[in-house]
Amino acid sequence: MLRLSVETLSASEVHEQRDAPDEPQLSSLHATPFASDHQPAAIMTTDNAQDKTYDANAPALSRADRSKPFFPLSGLAKDGFSNEDEASATCFCGAVQLAFPVKGEGLVDTFICHCYDCYKLTASVMGTAAFVVKGTHLRHVRGEVYRVGTGFPGNFIVRIGTVDDLNLIEGPLKPRIEMFNKDRASYLKGAEGVEQYQGWYYGAYS
Ligand SMILES: [Zn+2]
């Protein structure tokens, strides 16, 4: 057991478990020389504001060929996969990898959530985009990390940002509903083509 953290969701009980077989190597993360190289004073002016790093020829999701997987290969693992039946979701350090169904009864639903617990759980106010997978259809390639809740009995909740083939977020993993919009930050708008709900969507808890 590498780590165990238990988080409480007002709508449901949430457990996030990490159980990796080997200690992940995090040295490359810690070695990033960001702090010493960062010069915000030189960057954050209106005079020099421009899209300095944009490369029209670099791989980009907005221009990706949708007929095949698109792997940006962010993170330390380079073994993500995607086929017509299942695809991988991998954590940044690569210690944990799951395989989930991309179609059929195993892929239960897809959503965006703006509840306060999602703020804390993701350390973000941009909303949680995730999908629900039947417990019987989630395969642990290595380690374990997932979210479960009484609002989703028998299912696992996988955050969409862990998916390796990013074309899936434009396809079968595109959010179907957006909920807890009453708590969405005022500068965000509802996702285009996604059903909108002010509160919890999935009905009474069992
Ligand atoms: Zn939420």
Topology:
Layout (H helix, E strand, L loop, with lengths): L2 E6 L4 E6 L8 H4 L3 H4 L2 H4 L42 E5 L6 E5 L5 E7 L2 H7 L5 E7 L4 E4 L4 E2 L6 E5 L17 E3 L15 E2 L10
Parallel strand pairs: 5-10, 10-11
Antiparallel strand pairs: 1-2, 2-8, 3-4, 4-7, 5-6, 6-9
Bound molecules: zinc ion.
What can you see in these coordinates?
This is CENP-V/GFA domain-containing protein. Pfam families: GFA. The protein is mainly beta and 206 residues long. It has one domain (3-19, 64-196). It has helices at residues 27-30, 34-37, 40-43, 116-122; strands spanning 3-8, 13-18, 86-90, 97-101, 107-113, 128-134, 139-142, 147-148, 155-159, 177-179, 195-196. A 5-stranded mixed sheet has the order 9-6-5-10-11. A 3-stranded antiparallel sheet has the order 1-2-8, with no helix packed on it. The longest helix has 7 residues, at 116-122. 24% of the residues are buried. Residues 1-21 and 26-34 have low confidence and may be disordered. Zinc ion is lined by residues 113, 115, 117-118, 128, 180.
Tally of contiguous helical segments: 4
- What is the number of domains? 1
Instruction: Count the E strands.
Output: 11
Q: Characterize the overall form.
A: globular
Gyration radius, to the nearest Å? Answer: 19 Å
Q: Strand order, biggest sheet?
A: 9-6-5-10-11
The unique ligands bound to this protein are:
zinc ion
Stretches with pLDDT under 50, minimum 5 residues: 1-21, 26-34
Rounded mean pLDDT is 81
CA-CA gap between termini: 29 Å
SS class: mainly beta
Largest sheet: 5 strands, mixed
Domain CENP-V/GFA: 88-145
Keywords: Lyase, Metal-binding, Zinc
GO molecular function: carbon-sulfur lyase activity; metal ion binding
Region (Disordered): 1-30
